[in-house]
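My hope is that you will study the record closing this message with an eye to the fold:
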Amino acid sequence: MSPLDRRDFLHTAVVGAAAAATQARAAAPTNPPSENLHFALVGAGGQGRWDTSWLLKTPGAKLTAICEINPLRAAEAKQMAPDARVYTDWNEMFAQERDLQAALVALPEHTHAEASIAAMNAGLDVFCEKPMAFSVDEARQMIAARDTRQRILQIGQQRRSNPLYCLAERLVQQEGIIGEVLRVDAFWDRWSDWKSELPELDMDFSKWGFPTLNHLINWRLYRRYGHGLITENGTHQMDAATWLLGGLKAKRVAGMGAIRYHDERETHDICTAEYLFENDTIVRFSQDFHQGFNYGWSYGELLLGSEGSLRVTAEQEIVHYDRDRKATRIPIERLGDCEIAGVASSTADLQAAEADRAGGGLRTYSYGHEMRIFNHCVRTRTQPACTGEIGHNAIAFTVAGADAQYDAVVNTFDERSFLS
């Protein structure tokens, strides 16, 4: 089945089965979120299980069902919730599991929209991993489903739940600590690769769109499932860049990339994209899998201004450089008590998280915090920190950047490219 045929098939399946699921669930009693938050995991890979582990630590959260076509990963997920029922079809799961209130979607990116829309049509709130969708059109369909069904839709861009970035935004936008921002360098380098060894598993996954086991396990290497480094990681950083720039948008993007690993992969393992923003600030995203030397860290965002620079590294630390190049680390305590999407963080908690560098510091804290936010928003029917509009705008940047890289073109943006 071609990718286009598969999309048509899945679209028909989503519409029909989701309608059936909605009818079945409409007559079913549900537990009020104030008592429990029954959720389903859709996609039990490493990211999905990681997210689930954090959601399970929030009040009343219970993993009721798992949708996963790889039985090895389903078995790993069941270790977190032995009573959870396992499905290979999310529409069947949504129809059968009548006490569900939310779905955590952590699939290959080409199915994010299909699964999320099916969940919302079935009356569920959704936490969807980044990138929000494979295309901008799919992201807009997700937002339309959210609005029509009056659901909560939160996108897994955890910087939006990290108080460190709230501090960085205040330093740059409110205090003007580096003057006018001229350039942003978003870098993400590592001595590692996405390619994983194949497990011992004798199954045919072609009916789900994966012609070989390698396509399933190493889906990030194939362009039919994702756009590569720029959407997988650049989505985080382009969102952070536009946030720290006060919401400015891009005017155009050029990019390039290469494949240095000579195997069957189709996505770049080294790439860059440069964006010209509204105020003539240049933002560059770069990543490769062959070194990790950038600024002594593997990844981060460096903002270069007329009066100094600010570096946010590994989602854990802020360093300010003045005009004399003197470096000063800015501790999280400068932020003080913080509230994001109605969920508070005390200064003491943030200091403790920052000090726990061995445990991932504020980066790890943000993963837990985004799940506390999701739980809170489901219960209170309030908007999350990372809305569908934010997720949409992030992939508007990165999908256009990916096209520029692969097609060797310059892509332009206009007022219709982004949502407010």
User: Anything to note?
Assistant: Residues 48 and 106 are 5 Å apart (CA to CA). The two ends are 37 Å apart (CA to CA).
